[in-house]
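Work package 3, deliverable 3.1, input record:
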Amino acid sequence: MSTRRHLIVPGLVWAVLSIAADLTLTHLNLPPGYATTTAAGQSVTGQVFSMISATVGIAVVVFAVYFLVVFRGRPGDAGDGPPVRGDVRLQSGWLVLSTVIVLFAAAYGSIELEGQVTPQLVVPASQYHSAATRHPLIVQVIGQQWQWTYRYPQYGGFESPVIRIPANRLVQFDVTSLDVIHGWWAYTLGIKVNAEPGVNNVGYVYALKPSRFIVECSSLCGLWHGYMRNTGAQDGEVLSQSAFASWVKGAQRYYGPEDKYLPKFALVYYPSPTTY
Amino acid sequence: MSQTATLGGRSQAASFSPRRLFLSQNLLTATIIGIVTGLIGYWLGAQLETTDNGDAGILLGYLVGSVGFLVGLGFANELIPRLLGRPVSVEVKADAVELEAPSPRNWTRYFGISLDHKVVGIQFGVGVVFLFFVAGFQAMMIRTELLHPKGGPWPAGQYTALVGLHGLLMMFVATLVIVATFGNYFVPLMIGAKRMAFPRLEALAFWLVPLAAIILYSSIFQGSGGGFPTGWTGYAPLAVEARAGMDGYIVGFSFIGIAATIAGINLLTTIFTMRAPGMSWSRLPIFVWAMVAVEFLSVLAPPVLATTLALVGLDRSVQSSFFLPSNGGSAFLYQEMFWFFGHPEVYIFVIPAFGIALEILPVFARKPLFGYRLAVAGMVGVAMMSWFVWNHHIFESGIAPGLRPFFMTATEFISIPTGVVFLNLLGTIWRAKIQFKLPMLFVAAFFFNFLIGGLTGVFLSDVPLDVTLHGGFFVVGHFHYTIVGGEIFSLYAATYYWFPKLTGKMLNERLGKLHFWTAFIFFNTTFLPFFAVGYLGQPRRVPVYLPSLQALNVWISVNAFLFGFSNLIWLVNIIYSWAFVKERAPLNPWNSRSLEWQLPTPIPADNFQRIPTIVAGPYEYGNPTALPVAEFTPGTAPVPAS
């Protein structure tokens, strides 16, 4: 059989399958969803990477399966195949193609990354120069074994066990830990920031609409790591700006009296070690 | 004249006497000495202890006990006389007994120090595969816990300890199973050497493995709840805060690292200095090239681990504060140091798997390996680049922002040399005459599994995607596809391929086919949904999950039990074919050109009566003028027809 037939047949199968796969992927809403700009960016990136992976993966599988089936040894034929050791053009072409794909993925990822960690880029383009971007809401996330607590330094430093953030405003999370390494992960917000002791780890989120979100711990931190979460009644919430303002007032009244027992607000804390 | 020195110089007489048993150097006396010295070490440590933790005693107990065990076994038999300036006598004995089939007289050499690399290879093989099944049983326990969203039979602390034990023991297995078993056994044979460069070091590398496993499992009995709470990565400061089970992790993991370094030094020196005449680098089998590539990692990376764990040990026992920020240390430092080792470590798992797959492929395609030089460049390139990507494990830990694009790009670039192996596959099977014997089936499965594993790695390398996927089941799916789907499937292929040369028997064909289909199908049905649950937000190392994910988790658990069962089929096949089948295998059942298949079975103790001269490469299938690989007697190679 001619070389051309052995390449065209699997090539056609590949084209059909990968077009079908890519079209399906463009219509899927991949996690983590579209509740924030960062989550939306990740969902789109997931689609793009899935399409690239599907195209490449289907190519390798289709060609390999075709070759394995068509070029199997017939029973009774104990001979060898032709002594082909290599092909410079094919090898260079493969290297060039894989480099191009990788460069594209790296460039796409770097641009997307800048859009997720640079405060001005996390907000939608229309908000670049707004006051909301220049003055983000700062929420300090404190992880400890085995609970998350949240402090709002711009509102007197009160500490709350539940997290509320406003929609349509840049929010800056200053994440730290009191003891071991934890991971603050708000899945639908598309943010994961490790809580490391003695370190202030910063992340940004711009929520697009009110929603509820779950917070989990993503870094093994001891016995109750799996239960270190805000779910159910303790769900995090993205509130509209007015609802957030009234929540803050209520929280200041409710949690404020504890402030005098708490350490002064700082970016990192060093609680005195427990002896055990 | 062949010579094999057995340290201790004990002859293998069949008669038993208590005096001989208890006064000679053997496994039993070494164990007793190890336990006694261990207790002495524990007592010593307890004297040093300034606070009430007990870690100094446990750590010293493990270390001193291990030294006592190794000395009791006979590793210091040459060392001590030399240090004292006395003459050293090492008994040499003729090898008539080892040229016969294994007999009851010489089974004891597998339980002591052997200077024969083939014996050490079998020791590693049996020992490490045993650990594989222990760790696999633990995986079954983990999946039992995850049958219900609110958790299962094991309480939270026990579950994390189970996860850690499964993970760490599988790391032991993955580091050593191909390199130490097949590398030690076959590399000297493939390059035409009579022995390895440092036989006594190699035996030491083996005996560190049972020590490491026993030390690790003794952590189950420490403290309330037992085990260690950190998972296999051992993050400080949790590792510093943990109870006594953590000490077993520290010492056990360090020993395995040391064993990997030793194996690396030995293999590198052997390959560089002991190749037969005519074995040029371009005639080297691709498996040996894989060993060269991996040993650069294996020699350089585990010492970083041992150092890091030593620092954790110091933090735990003498209250230093390398990783405690409240006293000036840095928790983040642990992550950096650990992953600087940790990333080359995972390439230590995968590069030998490439070597096995590319070694077996030409034999069953009956064609030369397509792109031999590219394959070598790929494996060496992967090994070199693996040093530059480690921060992709800690993208969210607060690394300097400018580093993230760099490590993301470097990680994505490493997929270029990794992808080369698929070109080797496609080019080798192009116009081939593929024989679908069992080793070839597993090689095909390897490539399929590794394709999925590799592509999902690209997802994880992208930082924005990693924000959602890190710390969840997507990562777990990725590394199970590459390590189990990649390395373990190439382990299966290697056992079916080399079993006739190792044991003189063929593995049973029907059991093998049953093993292949159940393993391939159930592996994929188990681990493919991992990507789904990971993308849907299920974190790893957590015994509870959202109720909406229960159906997926139950599906995964049931298929995991079936995949575990398929491994038992493999084990039964090995035991049955080795011990109960009488029919001898042909000398070269796969018609391979490679040098190890030109030797008789069982292979003589010193491999070659006379070092052969290598006159051709091992992949010259289909070339009618190609000479056989080696000339065993000078001047007998047929002159090719021109």
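Chain B has two domains: 1-104, 114-610+613-630.
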